[in-house]
Amino acid sequence: MSVLLRDRGRAGSGRVAMVELFFDLVFVFAVTQLSHTLLAQLTVENLAHVTLLFLGVWWVWMYTAWTTNWLDPEKLPVRVCLFLLTIAGLFLSMSIPEAFAERGLVFACAYAAMQVGRTLFVLWAVRDGTTPRLANNFTRICIWLSLSGTFWIVGGLAAPGERLGWWILALGIEMIAPWTLYWVPALGRSATSDWNVDGGHMAERCALFVIIALGESLLVTGATFAELQWDGATLVAFFSAVLGSILMWWIYFDTGAERAAHRLLHAQDPGRQARSAYTYVHIVIVAGIIVCAVADETVLMHPHHGSDGALLAILGGPACYLAGAAWFKWVMNDRKTPPLSHVVGLLLLGLLAWPTLSHAITPLIAGAATTLVFAVVACWEAIALSAKRQSAAVT
């Protein structure tokens, strides 16, 4: 076995290393850049741009999380690799606001360098031939990422009006690759059994990214509130936003995250479940948190009047988050249907759509109502699970 791989037989080998948390600090900055870029212009076009940039940021982070699931971050070469990725990630994050303007090439080059460079490092790390399946897997990954990286750079060189199309193509290649099992002519395809992930590490890494997004939401709320006059409307908006963040934490972490981690840890094919529930489903959860942060800042700044884009964010963020949480728990907890509490929450948000989008209620009322919906979902699920545990204890 390569000396740079984690020793899975050693106790505590799957813990998240401090250098991984240091690397994550770049993505605190990236999430802030994404939310501020969306807030600057709440239009359909800007939403499309920010969505693509968010997916790119997520994909860079997720591929790195998979990599450090195999490689040991306590080893010096792996640490150096993460530090280099951190530097490139700063350029990636700094270019986000102008990625569809004059800094498109900076974003593209930083992105491609992180994706391809990290993969080449893994191939170097396993060059001794003791882990042929892992080496073959990353050879296929390198080919896919090199292809997508080419289109990222072509898009960065293209005129801003043509950039979106090239980058959609590049991102599409990367997102479809895991579902094709990285099939390459003459090299075949990988098997999900080749992705022998440490379930505890993967679950913790994704949970930490959720914390990053929630932390950014609180940061935006606190910074915005500090600069405003503290009248009745802003106080209500502030407490509603903070309570909403607390309830989002509760909905994800109270029981769902722990039960999902336990299932992944004991799964027969953890690679398949990690691909579905963590690589893809968490995109929806984190996106919902980011849009909620945008909505909270909008309500704080304009509690009585809001644009159509702002009102869509107020409803869309919570809807996206609940849909992602429901999907995650459905996939990871042997449910035949999504959790009823989350489905009811989505229906309640649907009932809020007409009075909100018709401006029959103010952004402040709409924001407070979405927080109330989160409270209903969190309390419902907590009571239902408590009753289930008591019933199991009796039997």
Q: N- to C-terminal separation?
A: 47 Å
Shape: globular
Q: What is the CA-atom radius of gyration, in angstroms? A: 22 Å
β-strand number = 0
Q: Main β-sheet: number of strands, strand sense, barrel status? A: none
Derived from helix and strand composition plus strand pairing, the structural class reads mainly alpha
Arithmetic mean pLDDT:
91
Helicity, as a percent range: over 70%
- The share of residues in extended strands comes to under 5%
Count, helices:
13
Outline the low-pLDDT stretches: none
- Following the backbone from N to C, one meets helices and strands in this order, namely HHHHHHHHHHHHH
What does this structure look like?
It is built from 13 helices and no strands. It has 395 residues and is mostly helical. The protein starts with 17 loop residues before the first helix and ends with a helix.
Give a topology summary:
Blueprint: H1 18-40, H2 44-70, H3 76-94, H4 104-125, H5 132-157, H6 160-176, H7 199-226, H8 232-253, H9 256-265, H10 270-301, H11 308-332, H12 340-357, H13 363-394
Helix pairs in contact: 1-2, 1-3, 1-7, 1-10, 2-4, 2-6, 2-7, 3-4, 4-5, 5-6, 7-8, 7-9, 7-10, 8-10, 8-13, 9-11, 10-11, 11-12, 11-13, 12-13
Structure at a glance:
The protein has 13 helices and no strands. With 395 residues, the protein is mainly alpha-helical. The chain is globular, with a radius of gyration of 22 Å.
Notable features of this structure?
395 residues; mainly alpha; single chain
